[in-house]
Every structure is written in structure tokens, then in C-alpha cells.
Amino acid sequence: MNTGNIQSQHLLGLKSLTREEIESILAQATVFKEVFNRSVKKLPTLNNKVFVSLFYENSTRTRASFDMAIRMLGAGSINFSVQTSSVNKGETLIDTVRNLESLGIDGIIVRHPMGGVPALIADHVKVPVINAGDGFNEHPTQALLDLFTMIEEKGYIEGKKVAIIGDILHSRVARSNIWALTKLGANVIVCGPPSLIPIGVENMGVTVTNKVEEAIEDADFVNVLRVQFERQKGNFFPSTREYYREYGITPQRLKRAKDDVIIMHPGPMNRGVEISTEVADGPYNVILEQVTNGVAVRMAVLYMLMSRKTTI
Amino acid sequence: MNLHLINATIVNPTGQQTGDILIQEGKITQVGKHIAAPDAEVHDCHNALVFPGFIDMHVHLREPGEEEKETLSTGLSAAVHGGITAVCSMPNTKPAIDNEVFVKFLIDKAWEINKARLYPAGSITKGLKGEELSEMVSMLRVGAVAFSDDGFPVENMQVLRRALQYIQPFNKPLILHCEDKALASDGAMNESETSTVLGLPGIHAVSEEASIAQSIEVAKYFGRIHIAHVSTAGSVELIRFAKQRGIAVTAETAPHYFTLTESSVEGYNTSAKMNPPLRSEIDRRAIIEGLRDGTIDAIATDHAPHAVDDKHVEFNNAKFGIVGLETAVMLTMEILVHREGFSLEQIAKLWSAAPAHILGVSGGELKVGAIADLTVIDPSYTWTVEPNRFFSKSKNTPFTGFQGKGAAIMTIVNGQIKWEAKNGR
User: Fold this and answer.
1) What is the pLDDT of residue A90?
2) ∠ at Cα B261 (B256, B265), nearest 5°?
3) pLDDT at residue B372 above 70?
4) How far apart are CA A111 and CA A135, in angstroms?
5) Best mutation target, A114, A172, A195, to test chain B (most B CBs within 10 A)
6) Which residues of B touch A93 (CB under 8 A)?
7) Quick one: DSSP state of residue B310?
8) pLDDT (tens digit per residue) in B232-264
9) For residues A273 and A226, what is the distance between their CA atoms, to the nearest angstrom?
């Protein structure tokens, strides 16, 4: 199956991708998801390739998901985290990635607490750089797996109402979702307390509300963002209790959505903060399916970046 | 050697004239047509503008402590290369300039270097900590011209009140870096749609404005303040209103705030990272209008040299600040004169008379008896910024490749040519 191509050498974010590029990644992921249904789960597609996972921030599922995707493509990976690295010895980020490149690795998967770091790395290495989450900026593979799941559930995205609820200000998942969903023609509404809504987000093609009922009304998808407990200390809201009362996704509130509304969450969930247990475990949640799809989407990204005809 | 500038367009804050200037023993001794001075060195200033020396009242020269970024020698050389005849150095060196020994050290060393004049600012509080007052009077006795905790706000209004009261008999300005640190938080650029799109933590305009408003209210009762590096439309409005109310407040802005906007940060460009940050186009327009109507009294560069390693890192981790001494004249001429139609008299005021007046130092007018500090500018010389030609030790500028019209072609300090362009420039 010809799944098209992507122009960029790196996957830094969805901001800079076209609708066609996003769709071609999702199409490739469909092919890879079929592999899951086979008894032998490994493809020799990227034999002998070695990726490094460079994580400057904690992660369980994204890191494991990339590892899984790498293995399924027959490639290998080196995990590298700040706790065990020379970063603590004062090495700069740029020196670190140049050293890794000199080891002969074929691609860098990076997560970092600061926005723009994957772009900085991409400026200093020749191998593909894949953003696994940078600050508040982007988490492109998370948004791709969200879109993949949406299409799997409802067939298409164009015209669907997607509510993104929670801490939009500090959310790279929200930003990547907004960039991709608006390109694919979704009707996106973001909702949260005004202290957690970033300035100018309405100019990114979304509707903004702080009434959770309005956000949920007739929604096809509700993407519930994790609300970090630490934000309470920054006075973005007074307590998780009040947050839950005003913005928590409960069965009662969900009655306003479409009957077949799909509930999504990038994880890890805070039950009783942004989402009630009844909803988290309810009939239309696809939260675990999202995790499975994450592997297929990351396989697609790795495969497409590595098989791209480079100009080097 | 006496200097005889002929055929010059002599620009003063009060008007222009064409003619000659004779300089003898560090002083201007004659201004007029066809001066006869047979023993003086003649410089034909045909097509050039001769201004009273430009005084940059806000620079960081990094010595002592961070000589890898700049030294007094490289900084004062960069100044004259950029057409600046005098600078006021901020005291946030390592250690901070918070006693008379350090002030004396700077003055003596600058004297030996013999390039631009150095007017040191001492700190308002010991170690710039915002707690205990520095010995400001001891520092002014040895030559400090102003006091500032620049780099940090004086956040405690009681400290600001006491500092203003204490220094009041000496009529020296307190130069305030107005920033509410809690509001600014860990921001790295202007908080706006651009920071939302880039996913960077923002520094909201209110962090500057709230602090200015508070400082103005203290100044209303207790003394004179000078607001450093004004960057927002709201700040301009606050200062305009304060002046209408008769409060003793003056202000400066930097060339980057009237030239660039936050869009320069796109691509995570650490060369465009400074504090306060580049703001919106609305703010940039308001800064220009504030300069035009005199709300903002002076232009100063906030020259802030940083080593390559300080900028070649994650955007959030990059140091705040850009160099400015060697691009200031071109940006002023290109943006304010050529594009915005500012008069040359206004430029003489913004770059010379106003800073001289605020700091209480010589300069600001070309007249008989004045000190012979002069900035000679070719207003039509077009050039492109190339940081490797800077005399400054640091090259951290967002203006690489920026092209504009206007260049300093001769810098005279104390009657001596400290820098002169060769090859027709």
C-alpha cells in the first residue's frame, strides 16, 4: 500500500505538517496495526537500525510505546535518561546529542521539559529527531494516536466536534491535537478554568469556553487532559476538589454529549480530579485502545522517517 | 592636536546649522562659518551629521567577574566603534558594584583605557539583594552618577522609599528595573499568542507595568526615578500619565524595542531573548510614539554581552540579553529617522541631551565651552550587520544580516578621535 510520504526529515510537531502528511502517517499506522492481529508480531523493516530514547522527563507509556514500536520493526534502542547520563556532569544538550550521533545511532527520540528542544537538536544532528513531548509545545505522536483512534471509532474527523478539557495552558497534547484536528476539519472546543487557557488560543482555530457543559454539548469526542496536582501550588486553581466539581467529567455531564461519545485521555489519569471512575471505565472510553494504537502510530512515524529518501 | 571639522551639519536639540567646529584642548572653542584655524587638523564633514556625543545610559560591561563576555576595554572600544562617546555601566557585575572601592576601580581603569567615557552606576542595595542600602553617598563621592539594582527589581517598596529619601539631597537618579518577579515567574518570552504557539512560558506585560505603576506612586512622594528598558504600550501610558501628574519620572527604551517584535523569537531564536522580552507590534508602535512625544526621554542600548555557550542552549536556559552598542546608531537612523520621520534634533535629545540631563553629566549640546564629545554620522551609508566585525567580545545580536542606512563615521571624546571609519565609511 502506498501511504504517501512526509517532507520533513524530523517529526518535531504537527504545527508544520500538512493535512496530507498527517493522513499518510495515519494510513501507514493502519497497515502496522494489522500486524497486531498476526501471531508473529515482528517485522524486519528496520533491521539493524538503532534508536536512542533521550528522556529528560519521566515517562512510562510514551517511552515503553516507542520501545515496543522499535522492537516490532526489528530495530534496537538505547535508553538514556538524565539520572544516568553525563548531563549531571555539566554536559550541554548539544554536546550530548552530538556524542550520541557519533555512536552511530540512526535516530533520536527526545522528551524534554522545555519547548523547542527537539528543534534545537535537529539543528545539530543529521539523523532524524522525533519529538516525544517538549515542554508545553508539542507531543505529536500522542496527537497522532488520538486522531488514529478517532478515525478507528467514527470513520472520519471532518466536522466532528472534539472537546479538549483541562489544563490547556501547560498541555503539549492539547496543542498538537489542536494543530492536527483543525487541519483535518474537526470542530474543536477547548475548555478549562481561564487561568489554564493560554492567550490567543482562539486564533489557532478553536472555540474557547469555561463552561464544561457547553464544551460537552453534542460532542463526538471528549479528550480529557491530565490536571497536574502541582498546578494547585501555582494557584491556577484552589483545589483538585473544586476542579472536579467544576470541570470533572462525570456521567451526569456526559449526558449532554452525543449518545455514542468517545472518551479519551492521554494518561496517566487522576480519577476523581479530571475524570470520574465511572467515565474512565465506562462504555465509551477508548483509553486503553489509545495505548495500543500508540504503538502502531509510532511504528508508522519511525518507518516513514527512516525510509524517507534523504538528501544527505 | 586641535581638530577643525568643516562643512558639517551641526545638530543640536534646539536646531541645526551648517558650518565648522573648532576643538582645542578637549573643549569646543568655536562654532560657526569659515573658522580660521591654521594649526588644526582639518576633517571635512561634508554630507555628515555632527551630533553632541551619544550617551548610552544603560550598558553591561561585565568587568569585574565575567571578562569572558566583555571587559571594560572591549566594551568601551565597542562604544566608540558604535558612535557612543559615554556609557553608564550597570552595577550587576560579579561582585556587584556596591561600594566606593569598586566604583573607583572602574573609573581608574576606564581612564587608562581612554576610549568612551565611563559613568558608573552603583547599586541601590548591597549585593543587589534588595534588602540593605548600599553606601550610595560614598559611591557618588568617587564618581558614581546613578544607582540601580538593574537585573533585579527593587521589589520591597519600603526599600525603594528609603533609597529615594536617602539620596534625595544629591539629585542622583535611581534607575529602576521594573519587574514583578512573581508575575514574570519562569517566563522566557512575551506572553501572547506567539508564546502559546511556541509552547514557551510567557512573561506578561503586566509584570513590567504593575511594577512601574507601584514605583511611580512611591516616587510621587519621595523622589526621582528613571525607568529602564521600557517595552510595553501600557508602560508608556503609565509614564505619560505620571508626567502629566508632575511626578519626577524619566524613562528610556532600547533600539530593539522600537525595531523588533516577539516574532523574532520564532524558531526558538535565543539571540532574540532578552528581559524585558520583545513584545507585540502594538507595543512597538507605542514605544515609537512614546519617543516621539517625549514620554520616553532617552534611548539606551541595554548592551548585554553573553558568550556563545550562554545562548547555544535550550531556549528556556539561554541567558537574557543582547549586545547593542554597535547597532544602535544604524537602528536609530533607519527606524526613527528614515522610516518614522523623527527630526535630527529629536535624535540629539534622545541620545545626548536627555541622558546627560538625567545623569547630571556634561554633554548634550554643541556650543562654545562644551566638552568636545561628538558623534559624527553618515546618515545615508547603507550597511549590513555582521557580528564578527563587532569590537565587543560578544556577538549575541538578533540583528545579524539586518540592513539599514546610517553609520557612525567618527567618534570624538574629550577632543580626541577615538574611532574613525576608513575607506570612505
Assistant:
1) 78
2) 100
3) yes
4) 8
5) A114
6) 313-314
7) H
8) 999 999 999 999 999 999 999 999 999 999 999
9) 9
Is A94's CB within 8 Å of B192's CB?
no
Picking from B192, B193, B313, the nearest residue to A93 by CB comes out as: B313
Q: Tell me what the pLDDT averaged over chain A comes to.
A: 92
The answer to whether residues B146 and B114 touch, using CB atoms and an 8 Å cutoff, is: no
What the block records as the C-alpha cell of B90 is 550597570
- Using CB atoms within 10 Å of the CB of residue A104, give its burial: 0 to 12 exposed, 13 to 18 middle, 19+ buried: exposed
- When CB atoms are compared, the residue of B194, B199, B268 closest to A120 is B268
Q: Mutating which of A87, A95, A121, A137 best tests the B interface, going by the most B Cβ atoms within 10 A?
A: A137
- Establish whether the linkage from the previous residue to B95 is cis, with ω within 30° of 0: yes
Residues of chain B neighbouring A198 (CB-CB closer than 8 A): 195-196
Q: Which residues of B are known to be catalytic?
A: 302
List of residues 6+ apart from A190 with CB closer than 8 A: A163, A164, A165, A168, A174, A178, A197, A201, A206, A207, A208, A209, A215
Q: Minimum mean pLDDT among A231-240, B135-144, B147-156: which range? A: A231-240
Torsion, Cα of B71, B76, B78, B83 (10° steps): 170
Q: What is the DSSP string of A17-70?
A: --HHHHHHHHHHHHHHHHHHTSSS----TTTT-EEEEEESS--SHHHHHHHHHH
Question: Cell for B295?
Answer: 514620554
Residues of B with CB under 8 A from a CB of A: 191-202, 267-268, 309, 312-317
Nearest residue of A to residue B197 by CA position? A137
Beta-carbon count within 10 A of A19 CB: 12
C-alpha torsion sign, points B333, B334, B336, B339: positive
What is the ipTM score, two decimals? 0.90
Our CA dihedral for B337, B338, B339, B343, rounded to 10 degrees, sits at 30
User: What mean pLDDT is predicted for residues B152-178?
Assistant: 97
Q: What is the pTM of this model?
A: 0.94
CB contact under 8 A, B195 and A198: yes
H or E, element range at B31: strand B27-32
Specify the DSSP element, H or E, that contains B162: helix B157-167
DSSP state of B320: P
The residue type at A158 = E
H/E stretch holding A281:
none
Chain A partners within 8 Å of B193 (Cβ)? 199-201, 203
Cβ separation of B195 and A92 shorter than 8 Å? no
Angstroms from A169 CA to nearest CA on chain B: 8
Beta bridge partners of A111: A55
Chain A positions in Cβ-Cβ contact with residue B182 (cut-off 8 Å): none
Q: Which residues of chain A have a CB within 8 Å of the CB of B195?
A: 198-199
Convert A160-193 to b/e letters by CB count within 10 Å (16 or more is b).
bbbbbbbbbbbbbbbbbbbbbbbbbebbbbbbbb
